[in-house]
Known about the structure:
Elements: H1 2-32, H2 36-40, H3 46-52
Amino acid sequence: MQVDESANRGEQFEAAEREAAKQRLLAQAEADRVPVDDTTRAVPDRRWRRDQR
């Protein structure tokens, strides 16, 4: 009975560690995230326009 209890506690500890790691990764990803507006803004290419005249 004692072995089952400690194995269960170990599994719970590992699950808690995985969840904490997941939360850290999500927080880091959110901190590194680039807003959509910054990635979709069109920048005119004047060289292309010059060739089109």
